[in-house]
Amino acid sequence: MKKGDKKKRRKALKKRTMRKQVSRQARATGATTVLGHIRQARNYPIDGCWAGEGWKESGIAIIVIARRQPNGNLVFGNYLVDCYCLGLKNTFFNADVPASLFQRDYMPEIFSEMPPVDISPALAHEIVYGGIEYAAQFGFNPHRDFRRSQYILDPPDLHPRTGAVEFGRDGQPFYIEGPHDNVQAILRQLDRTAGEGNYHYLMQMAGPPPDGWDE
Length: 215
Fold this sequence. Notes:
Helix content: 25-40%
Distance between the termini: 93 Å
Strand order of the largest sheet: 4-3-2-1-5
Structural class: alpha+beta
Shape: globular
Largest sheet: 5 strands, antiparallel
């Protein structure tokens, strides 16, 4: 082998070695993209957990769980949980968000309808996982984006259940119509799984109330 060929081979080998080192380092640190941080989120410590005030009375819980990345920014998940019937109706996540931006912009937007209250990680996980498990009994699946936002949560069996959350109401599913629900499909599903007469529902009234209606 010529001297020049040996030099080229050594140079190529060095480049491959450096690429492997960079790749290993990226995997070890969790990656530099939003989805990379999402996949690594369980390795980051929980920075805070919040729920919308009055969630017990309404049956609808807005849950936020934030974790602190190694660079000081936050990765967080937002979970809209129908504790009475449908479980996880919606979920959103983001990563590499500066803490100041999270508090200034994200939190007021998420909790625009009700103020947030601090809750324990155990309670936050119980609401999300418990809602999903309850809804699954009646054939309702969590929102499709949970396949990613689940990694911001700890595994389901890590936190003990507090017993502070009631799923369903008075021992039965209680469906409250939401603005984007396919109402007839949901009621048919409840007929099949809970059984006709074994659940309650509340429809939203369209337009102004009729004469004589007491608000």
